[in-house]
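User: Structure with magnesium ion, tokens only please.
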Amino acid sequence: MARVVIENLVKVYGEKSGPGVRAVNGINLTIEDREFMVLVGPSGCGKSTTLRLVAGLEEISGGTIAIDGRVVNGVPPKDRDLAMVFQNYALYPHMSVFENLAFGLRQRSLPAAEIESRVREAAAMLGLDPYLQRKPAALSGGQRQRVAVGRAIVRHPKVFLFDEPLSNLDAKMRTATRAELSRLHDRLGATMIYVTHDQMEAMTMGDRICVMQDGNIMQVAAPLELYDNPANLFVAGFIGSPPMNLVRGTLAVTSDGLAFIAEEASDAPLRVSLDGALARAAAGAVGRAVVLGIRPEDIRPEGSHVPLSARIDVVEPMGAETFVHLVGSGYTLIARLAPSAKPARGDTFPFSFAPGKLHLFDAASGAALR
Ligand SMILES: Nc1ncnc2c1ncn2[C@@H]1O[C@H](COP(=O)(O)OP(=O)(O)O)[C@@H](O)[C@H]1O
Ligand SMILES: [Mg+2]
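Assistant:
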């Protein structure tokens, strides 16, 4: 059992010698027992700092961290019952894989038989049995990474902490290891906190994802909830590739009811009538600056008799799908189409937005209008 509760956590680096850097800005986050929680966000947003605070590798400036109901603020790392895997996993080059796996256990003076059995168990889980007598230099990057994970597993910790453990692997190896770590999580039934800047990794691995920016949490949700209902502009733009299309404009009451009208509108402004839940959410924001959001896959090609059309500027065939860059009057969009749509550069592209798939955000605060 391991539930990690983070309350009002603050980290300011260098606060003794000046104003310091506020790396973590009073965050609250609960990681449930056996949960795979991913912390994701751009470089410098405070992911590693948060993880290092949980590990006890940095001193907390404010707030508390509790593991299984026990506040661990003053508890040294070795007594927190957690294991961390870093991006730069330093294996001992002169030791065999077996000895690399056993090293931490020997230091804690575990009986030899217990060490042997834990190392064998971890090696079997990670497919490392054939390599136990090799030195790290004789392993591939992926195998070395597995040894680093194995060193964490042999400790039987309550909580696993991962800081960008796949960053040094090539794309193919990263995908394979990603799946392995997911299986490992199921098998170990352990609580895991996993840091990455890669939204794809976050989406595919996390039970829940915590999106961070500038030391703050922007949203915590399951992957598809995050994708379908981003709470703000930051999450909308960060999760998804290509990202959600965002168009600035205002909300106005027209003869057809409530509508979004893009700014910089010239002769043919982008106008979108709103209905249903979105119209109800937008009603309170008439006259305000807003941002309309639409995912690339929610832009639908249409016959010519629709009010919306743009010019195809770029066509990117990806195989299973084709991305097209659309230029309208004062706005640009990226649409994800089936290759059978056969879009051609320079063509006029009449389109519609899939019903129920539009998002609106307050331009000033960034918050989703719900
Ligand atoms: N040891 C440190 N001393 C001073 N500033 C630091 C230190 N470590 C990180 N920072 C700063 O704290 C902020 C968050 O860093 P970090 O947690 O490493 O972000 P991430 O892991 O999301 O890239 C950044 O502005 C970074 O420059
Ligand atoms: Mg980091």
